[in-house]
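Narrative summary of target 7.
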Amino acid sequence: MKNTVRLTAAQALLQFLDNQYLEHEGRQYKFFEGIFGIFGHGNVLGIGEALEYHRPLQLKYYRGHNEQGMVHAAAAFAKQNRRRRAFICTSSIGPGALNMVTGAGTATVNRLPVLLIPGDTFADRQPDPVLQQLEQPQDYSLTVNDAFRPVSRYFDRINRPEQVMAAASEAVRVLTDPADTGAVTLAFPQDVQGEFWDYPEDFFAKRIHYLDRRPPNLEAVDRLVSAIAQKQRPLLIAGGGVRYSEAEAWVRSFAEKRHIPVVTTQAGKGALPWDHPLNMGGIGTTGTEAANVLAREADLVFAVGTRLQDFTTASKTAFDREHSDIVSINVNRMDGRKMEAMWLDADAKEGLSALDAGLDAVQWQPAQRSDHLQQLKKCWNEEVNRLYAMPDDEGLPQTTALGIVNECVEDNAIMVGSSGSLPGDMQRLWRCRRADTYHMEYGFSCMGYEIAGAYGVKLAEPDRPVYSMLSDGSYLMMHSELTAAMQEGVKIVVVLMDNGGYQCIHDLQCSHGSRGFGNELRYRSGDTLSGDYLAIDFAAMAKGLGLEAFRAENAVQLRDALRRAQESPKSVLLDIKVKPGTHSGGYASWWRVGVSQVSQEPAVEKAAQEAQQYLKKHQW
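Modeled conformation, tokenized:
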């Protein structure tokens, strides 16, 4: 008979998780770095007790300040670690648990491993309705935690202490699978957390999960080589899978050998340095003109490690669908088969290597376009230089401010962003000098990720400078994890562009017939929010939290503020007052949005007619 150890369900779950390791190419990683938590009556006496008293538990506890924020920090930590390490997040029941749902969706959309353990109502149902319990008369088994089901890659509810063994094993299986990973939720009733069971000792033994590179099927490679050999104008899209596979050098070699231009998604940006002659910048709705011109010209698109979301494909209008083919290299079947792509089921590095060998065998060399590529890149560089040099005599333009930040930050600094107009400016204009310096959450483009994400990135990379790039709207949405950074003594630099509200959405409105409604941070004037802009002192707010803060209204002040921020030993906020509406626009691209086809405003109906005409030209 197996030896057993008597533990509570919470103690057993955490002890099991504490002994999970991931091995990749001979290097072992302790998979769970620690646990973010906010305690309440649904978890403080179960999971909280296990963290406080149970030994030999090594999981480090980090106090969260907003449940959504701590999930964002966990997702950013996993992303920066190329999904080889992760965090656990725990909350109480009810509102605390529901606050994590947005973070769960963000992690799942971006294919990032995060383990969520929300407290749940009593499994024995005796105190019902307990404080913060949601009662549903049509199904009493439902709790608010069922809201996690559509945003989780795996969901389970531990209703008995012995269920920990199956639930925990399945959770780690999903979290360590690159094709299936995302948020995993284990709803944990508060009474069950404290109940005991005699667990087999070997359940807590060290477990190693192997992250092996997935090689392609050779028959599939041969089929693709035959199709590729007929093409002359290829384009390579580097997505986030390139980064997770550490395939940057393979992308570079593959492209240089055949002089294939490379474009990037938000997750793949940095695969090549900005000044590499084949790097044409970001593609799609927030892409560069050079990239989008080449996308329309391409008769073959290598989509490497990308899920081809609508910003990447400009709502499926970026490519000449009638005369071009897509070859997708991806470990995820759903992603790999999008847009009728010819799918190669493989790790990015292994897939590129196999295709390279196959194309060498048939001596494939596409048409030489050196002069054309050089001219496109030259024109785009000139456009970036122009936007970076916009004068500040009537207010500091956002593109000028971004150029100054790009010029002044350290070469190894990590720039973190997510939402608003800055992701567009960053993908188009930001010049990555080296790989692994650009961290953009753009699968969900979740407001509030930027500061929490920067905190998570700093926990992953404590020896590198980390900058949070965001606007005033996102800052007001969530900046709670600045307090967590202060508690932990880690430094992040918050680059806040105060541009008077949600300017990217304001611009989207105005470009489709609106005069602007409800998006800017203005005082009420009559029936609308159309008065003067609110004058918010973000620097004073940050100082109240214990940060250093500097205000900048022109280029000289911004350069000085950046210098002082880099010299500071603690977290800093730069309150940069930029002229509203001075972000970059679209270049040779489109984005499909819903436009009202009937309106009392003629300009709106005209915009709807133009959208319908565009759709007729780009059927898919």
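The radius of gyration is 25 Å.
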